[in-house]
Automatic annotation (TrEMBL):
<dbReference type="InterPro" id="IPR002639">
    <property type="entry name" value="UreF"/>
</dbReference>
<comment type="function">
    <text>Required for maturation of urease via the functional incorporation of the urease nickel metallocenter.</text>
</comment>
<dbReference type="InterPro" id="IPR038277">
    <property type="entry name" value="UreF_sf"/>
</dbReference>
<keyword id="KW-0996">Nickel insertion</keyword>
<dbReference type="GO" id="GO:0016151">
    <property type="term" value="F:nickel cation binding"/>
</dbReference>
<dbReference type="GO" id="GO:0005737">
    <property type="term" value="C:cytoplasm"/>
</dbReference>
<keyword id="KW-0143">Chaperone</keyword>
<comment type="subunit">
    <text>UreD, UreF and UreG form a complex that acts as a GTP-hydrolysis-dependent molecular chaperone, activating the urease apoprotein by helping to assemble the nickel containing metallocenter of UreC. The UreE protein probably delivers the nickel.</text>
</comment>
<protein>
    <recommendedName>
        <fullName>Urease accessory protein UreF</fullName>
    </recommendedName>
</protein>
<comment type="similarity">
    <text>Belongs to the UreF family.</text>
</comment>
<dbReference type="Pfam" id="PF01730">
    <property type="entry name" value="UreF"/>
</dbReference>
<keyword id="KW-0963">Cytoplasm</keyword>
């Protein structure tokens, strides 16, 4: 990776990227409210299980399939997997999250002229663009390779989860860095698994995560909350 690609990757994975990721906890706040997470150890366990048992099983391989669609100019594949991922979002909050963040990233990519004008017109013409579809496009458009692009997507997710832990458990900054330090090496394994799952025919993907869905549903009516999901 040359310096230009590296700096593009850093921009795409920066917390300053204005797509609203800081607004969401993906059920983490509800897990704290229900007493499933109450300190550093339980926060680390929750985030690791979400990464390995939820994200790695579906969202990460979907990202890989969408990146391949952009790289190959396969509009049919892009339509299919973008719609498939959108339909797989089990609660109103989770669906609204991927819609809002996906659209915000499309708007950013359009305003900054990332990638091919035809591809941007395709994105703007879609009724819904999920976050994996928009992020995979941004990575491809910026000349970022498949593996580091997915790693950036996963690290952004991990960092947002740790920030949610800081605000809701609450945790101190050093505890947050210990969690990041412990889980960051797992991203490489998750990438490998995602690419393996995406390469199967049909892709080996599943979304069975009942506790995650239940907590997301409960979060919609939680009395007091900091996050939108």
């Amino acid at each position: 990776m040359d310096t230009r690609q590296l700096t593009a990757l850093l921009q795409l994975s920066s917390p300053a990227l204005p797509i609203g990721g800081y607004s969401y906890s993906q059920g983490f706040e509800a897990a704290v409210e229900r007493g499933l997470v109450d300190g550093e150890a339980s926060a680390c366990l929750w985030i690791r299980q979400q990464l390995e048992l939820v994200v790695a099983q579906c969202e990460a391989p979907i990202w890989a399939l969408l990146f391949d669609g952009w790289a190959g100019g396969d509009w049919e594949q892009l339509d299919y997997w973008n719609s498939w991922f959108h339909a797989s979002r089990e609660t109103q909050e989770i669906r609204q999250e991927t819609e809002q963040m996906g659209w915000s990233l499309v708007k950013l990519a359009t305003d900054l002229d990332w990638g091919d004008a035809g591809a941007r017109r395709y994105l703007l013409g879609q009724a819904t663009v999920t976050l994996p579809a928009a992020h995979a496009y941004a990575a491809y458009a910026l000349g970022i390779a498949r593996s580091p692009g997915l790693a950036a997507y996963l690290f952004t997710w991990l960092e947002n989860q740790v920030m949610a832990a800081i605000k809701t458990v609450p945790l101190g900054q050093m505890a947050a860095q210990r969690i990041l330090n412990q889980l960051r090496p797992n991203i490489s394994t998750v990438c490998d698994e995602a690419f393996s799952r995406a390469a199967q025919r049909p892709p080996r993907i599943h979304t069975l995560a009942p506790q995650f869905a239940i907590l997301s549903s409960r979060h919609e009516t939680q009395y007091s909350r900091l996050f939108r999901s």
